[in-house]
């Protein structure tokens, strides 16, 4: 389907899960370990940023360190 803004066809978005598995040559365990390490690193970065940020700058926003799963959409 042509893109209305550019008049060109848009390419389909790649599946992130397939891309990750491809990056690890199909080794699912290595991919999961890497994703867990990335999540841990990002959680630490969020904690550091929220510790350094003033309450006024964030206007009362507080980070959530764990993802909240919406049971109604699952």
Automatic annotation (TrEMBL):
It comes from Hoeflea olei. The lineage of its organism: Bacteria, Pseudomonadati, Pseudomonadota, Alphaproteobacteria, Hyphomicrobiales. This is Uncharacterized protein.
